Amino acid sequence: MTRAGSTVTPAWWRTLPLDRVVRVEGASLRDLADHVDPLPADTAAPLFFRADDAAAATAATLTDAVVAAVEQAAIELIPLCVPGSDSPADRSSLARSAARARAVETARSSEHFGPYLAHLAAAGASARTPRTDTFSRETRLTGAARVVAQAHGRDTAVLVVDVPAGAPARDVAAAAEWLCRAGVGVWLTGDGAESVDRFPTYRVDVPAAPSDVATIVDRFRPGSYPPVVGHPHAASAAEERLHTLLSMREWATGRGHNQVVRPSELGRPFTVDVVWKREKIAVEIDGPEHRSRQRFSDDRSRDNLLQTRGWMVLRFTNEDVLTDHERVVATIEQALQRRRAKGTDT
Predict the structure, then answer these.
(1) Residue 136 backbone dihedrals phi, psi, to 5 degrees
(2) Cα separation values, 277 from 31, 238, 340, Å
(3) C-alpha distance from residue 268 to each of 130, 203, 289 (Å)
(4) Does residue 259 sit in helix, strand or coil?
(5) Measured distance CA(346)–CA(334) in Å, rounded
(6) CA distances (Å), 258 to each of 134, 183, 220, in order?
(7) Which tens digits make up the pLDDT trace of 116-149?
(8) Strands, E, within 3-76: which ranges?
(9) CA-to-CA distance for 167 and 149, rounded, in angstroms?
C-alpha cells in the first residue's frame, strides 16, 4: 500500500491503518459506504458520519456530535450484545431495570464496562436519548464503539468522517486526534479533509456509487452502519416491524434477515432483507430511495438474477409494512405455502 496520491488496492478496508488518523482521497463517503455493504469479513466495524457545518464548527462540537452518533448506533445495536434486550413494546421502569440487570450480567464475562453498558441498555429499553453528563466522553466513545464492533462480530471499530468544505482544519484535526486516542480508527474524507494536512493521505480506488442510488449514509443519519447479517437493520422501522410480525408466526421459521446472496460466481454479492433459502424466497422492503431511476433499474437487475435461478422475489414498501402489515404477512405466507407444497426446484 502507498500514500499521498497513490492508489490503494480494492481491499482498501483491510489496508488503511486503524491506529492513527488518515485522510482518504479518490472516493466519497457514499462510495466507501456502498463498497462495504455487505460488510466484508476482514474489516473493522465501520460507522460513517457526515458532519454538517454546525457540527464541524469547533473541535468540541465535532467531537460531541461524533460521540453522540456512535452512542446512538450502540443503543440501536444493544440487543445484539445484551441478550433479552429486544422487547421494544415494554417501556416501563421495570423493563429499564431488567435491561440494566442483563447488561451488568453480560459485562461480567466481557470487556464491557458494566455501568455504561447498563446505561445504554436502559436507554434502549426506554427509547429515550440518554443523558450525556453521566459518563465522560472517553467512556462513552470507547464503550459505544465496543458495542458497535461486537454487534458486527468484529474486534475493532473505525469512524469514517465526512468533513464539509470550509471546516476549520485545526479544529477538525484536534477532534480527529482525540477520537483516535480514545481507541477507534479515524478516516477523514470529504472536501474539508483536503485542508487537514497534518495526516497522511491514502487514495482509494473504488467504483462510484450512482447519484440516484441510496446508500446506507443516505438512508440512516447522522451515524450510518451496514446491516448486520442475520438481523433486521436496527435503524429501519419497517425491517424491525416485519421481524416482529414474522417472529410471531410459526410458518415463518427458517428465514434469515439481511442475508448476503451471490447469484453468480462473478457477480458482486448483495444483501437481501429477508430470505428463506430452502424455499428460495426473497423479500425486499423498499424505502422512497427505491423510486429513483437508477435504483429501480438496479432492483430489476437483481430481481432478474434471482428469478432466473429459481427464486421468487416479493417487494413491499416501508408504508406497506408499517400500515398494511396484514396484507404483507398474508402474501409472504401464501408464497411460502406454495413453495413448500410443490418443492423449490423451480
Answers:
(1) -70, 160
(2) 30, 21, 12
(3) 39, 22, 21
(4) strand
(5) 17
(6) 35, 29, 16
(7) 999 999 998 887 888 899 999 999 999 999 999 9
(8) 7-8, 21-25, 45-50
(9) 29
The three three-digit cell numbers of residue 50, written as one number: 457526515
Share of the chain above pLDDT 90, in %: 62
Give the separation between CA 264 and CA 107, rounded to whole angstroms.
Answer: 42
Strand order of the sheet with strand 312-317?
256-261, 270-276, 281-286, 312-317
- The answer to whether residues 178 and 21 touch, using CB atoms and an 8 Å cutoff, is no
**CA triplet 300, 302, 303: central angle to 5 degrees?**
60
Residue ranges and CATH numbers for the domains of the chain are: 7-224 (no CATH), 237-342 (3.40.960.10)
For the entire predicted model, the pTM comes to 0.83
Sheet hosting strand 185-189, strand order edge to edge:
7-8, 201-204, 21-25, 185-189, 157-162, 45-50, 223-224
- Indicate the length of the chain as a whole number: 346
